[in-house]
Amino acid sequence: EICACLVGSEMCIRDRCGEMIKQQPDKKYSVIIMDIVQFKAVNEFCGRDEGDRLLRFIASCFDWYENNRPDSYACHIRADIFCLCTSYEEVEELEIIVREIRKKITDFPFAYRVQPSFGIGISPERAPAISYLKDCATMAMNSIKGKVYRTYAVFDEKMRSQKMRERQVENDIVSALENGELQLYVQPKVDMRAGRVIGGEALVRWKHPEKGLVPPGEFIPVLEKNGFIINVDEYIWEKVFAYLGKLRKEGRTLIPVSINVSRLHAYDEKLTETLLRLREEYDVLPEYVPLELTESAFLEDEVGMYRRMESLRERGFLVSMDDFGTGYSTMNMLKNQTLDEIKIDREFIRDLEKDKSQIIIRNTIAMLQQLGAHIVIEGVETEEQKEFLLGCNCTDVQGFLFYRPMPVEEFDKPVSYTHLRAHETCADL
């Protein structure tokens, strides 16, 4: 709204540029996306009025090209993100535009050092979709986030290959759900001292009919980006509840199998309703299905997620913080949120040969024990790590030293720490 009088809306640029590209299909077109690094800090340091003044100036910089460069349209997408669609002959023209805008912004009299970040989206296809160019520009811009020595990036062949893989994942995932290609795997949690499995963590694995086993790192980030991770999460949740319900009907002993709740569920008002429905449908006590959340799940909508988690805890579900120690606000999380379990990230125990690492780990464990949280250490892979953790009075772990993730059918068999060697052939996923 701040810049509406200076540049077009996102919908407007999509329609106008789409029409322009359609009418002149022989020309090459590009989309340039710009974002201010840590713009929130600009508002906090200088005040919102000053932040708005900066945005109006940036809008005028983009608007200049719409008024003075043929076949160009500018847009204020949201907050501190701006966009320019323009025709071009050589990529160097686009790089000059980026450098010119950057110089104007850095020369602008302002009390805070402003760092703009640019992505240049291009395509070898004639008459590319404006949405595709915008996605390419965004991907290029995201590739340099956190790299203070890089101001801009041009969409290249490596990014193009990644984009094609993402499109393939998006295209295949619906049929994967319908055809049962997504499978439930479980990684056991072990009590090292007692030598027994005390629980498990539900994981998803994709067995593609043509490609075989697709690594999670290739499809999970794509699903998080396009929002389909919610569908996949709920698919796996139902498999966990169904598995535990089957064991209960057979009169067998249940052990908890935790499920992952992604950050996108921060916006899912039906989260509580879905979990309660699964509890009722499969007649499984909620304490057998702990909820694992990373810190980022709270950062998306802190108040809303706190409210949902407290509501679920009141109904018997347990809440676990996954990847403890990897975020910026972990200590605030401990103060603000009631947690039943804390999973310490594998990075914490990687450098045990260093005295400082041992001091940090030992005191972190002691602090969490004083807070009364159940502790699980992730990524235990060596006997040295095991002995150190036992010396810290920490017994419950996950890691390849004991078990790798395995199909739920394997987890279903009676297992114990003494059967470790029998499972070493399980896929390293």
3D architecture notes:
The protein is built from 15 helices and 15 strands. It has helices at 10-23, 39-46, 48-68, 91-107, 130-142, 157-178, 216-226, 229-249, 271-282, 295-300, 302-314, 330-336, 355-370, 383-391, 408-411; strands at residues 28-36, 72-78, 81-88, 116-121, 152-154, 182-191, 196-208, 212-214, 257-261, 291-293, 319-324, 341-344, 374-377, 396-397, 406-407. The strands form 2 sheets. Strands 6, 7, 8, 9, 10, 11, 12, 13, 14 and 15 form a 10-stranded mixed sheet that branches. Helix 2 packs across helix 3 (48-68) and helix 6 (157-178) crosses helix 7 (216-226). It is globular. The two termini are 47 Å apart. The model is unreliable at 1-7 and 415-429 (pLDDT under 50).
Write the layout of secondary structure elements.
Elements: H1 10-23, E1 28-36, H2 39-46, H3 48-68, E2 72-78, E3 81-88, H4 91-107, E4 116-121, H5 130-142, E5 152-154, H6 157-178, E6 182-191, E7 196-208, E8 212-214, H7 216-226, H8 229-249, E9 257-261, H9 271-282, E10 291-293, H10 295-300, H11 302-314, E11 319-324, H12 330-336, E12 341-344, H13 355-370, E13 374-377, H14 383-391, E14 396-397, E15 406-407, H15 408-411
Parallel strand pairs: 4-5, 7-9, 9-10, 10-11, 11-12, 12-13
Antiparallel strand pairs: 1-3, 1-4, 2-3, 6-7, 6-14, 6-15, 7-8
Helix pairs in contact: 2-3, 6-7, 8-9
Question: What's this entry about, in short?
Answer:
With 429 residues, this protein is of the alpha/beta class.
